[in-house]
Amino acid sequence: xxxxxxxxxxxxxxxxxxxxxxxxxxxYVVKSMVKNTHDFVIADRRIGFGxxxxxxxxxxxxxxxxxxxxxxAFTFGTSGLIWFVVPNGLAVMLMVPFAIRLRxxxxxxxxxxxxxxxxxxxxxxxxxxxxxxxLGLLAEIFINLFGVVLVMGVVFGINPTVVLIVTLATVTIxxxxxxxxxxxxxxxxxxxxxxxxxxxxxxxxxxxxxxPSLVFQKVEEAGPNTLNAFDxxxxxxFGISLSLGLLASTMADQTFWQKAWALKPATLGRTFVWAGxxxxxxxxxxxxxxxxxxxxxxxLEDLGAAGPGGVGPYVVSHLGLPIVLIAxxxxxxxxxxxxxxxxxxxxxxxxxxxxxxxxxxxxxxxKTLFRWTKSSIIIAGVIGGIVVSSGIDYVELVNTVxxxxxxxxxxxxxxxxxxxxxxxxxxxSLVLAIAVGYPxxxxxxxxxxxxxxxxxxxxxxxxxxxxxxxxxxxGSLSRRNSALIESDHAVDFGGAIVPEREVNKVTQDVxxxxxx
Length: 516
What we know:
The protein is mainly α. The protein has one domain: Sodium/glucose cotransporter (Up-down Bundle), CATH 1.20.1730. Helix content is 75%, strand content 2%. The chain is built from 24 helices and 2 strands. The chain has a two-stranded antiparallel sheet with strand order 1-2. A hairpin with a 2-residue loop joins β1 and β2. The N and C termini lie far apart (48 Å). GO terms for molecular function: spermidine transmembrane transporter activity.
């Protein structure tokens, strides 16, 4: 059934560089829209519904969505696919109440770290939030770089170091020019280049192996619970912790908060709802490749160093499909990885500008700020290349990142919605939850670890806050000044000095019905 892949590495280089050249063309066109740091990191808060939906889907459809869905289906059968897919879309849609509330509370905001600083006025809380955001964004870059290395190695046998250099050079160059505008526009193109091609490739694979009925028959023969959609092994192995981690990865991820503050207020809610719904077909379709691999006897030895994450590329490239379909599949992976990397670059640049450079030197010259903000993309790319070249395990990296991010769910949600939440409670809940929950995960099990982590987080956050008996005035957030006033006329907006172009009439413009 499966044959050796003898595809020329030249095809792989052509795909990587060709896609990069297209993205660079878009970035060059967009360049005229970016005049300063404010434009670079927040797109003048003018991203509309179309680009908004496309950009949210694209940054969420990273290498994990297109390859780990196959990996979990290959490892656990249909239950693995279900546990991976369902919480992914929900995590995006559940962003709606948090995004709307925080945008109303803090209309001139840029980053979630900035919110934590203004909310608690506490250096340890701010530092923890800053470190968490930077590490989370770097992890996104690592994971997606690994995705490119994996697919190009499995399909074309290209040296990982060479793939890293080409990918980093390509994405860094086009991200450097346009910031969030480039990310939003290229991401929308990427979304279109992922959805339809994915369906075409998977339909071709199913036809090649005898149709979906035969695939599910083979999957059932591969093990006793492979077609049991509610098999507890997947839930205990990764499903519950991944579900909570996915929620944290939207709610506690600057990539999504950057979009929340950059979108036009009237489209904010429905953008996240539609992005979550539109996302679903992508991992469902590509996850079927994992079932094909499971049913037709692909082994871990066949996948080699790539592990379960390489099952999708292996199936597509070793079935004897026409080269054009294999190239189309590789483009799907490249699109997903490129768009997620440049989205993480853009989000990281906003954190660097607002929470590092402006805090370290409030009177920094606008041109100097702009230059260093863009340079942070290059630095992040170099760090990403070093980490990925170390040979870290892809699936374990994903699961660990999401487990640690899950510690942010309760304290951050309470910080946004509960005026009694305190700085000490925020810090203690995070530190204690990870300090106890992570060892439990390592030595007892994934499920026990996530239960421990969330239980300690909840008890510490609520208990300490109630004992301290403090109350926060959320109205103070709307009266704060914009962090990046660089141009246009400044006006008094509810007591805050905000650039005239940033006054979004938030109370009138936010859509009261986010689904409408």
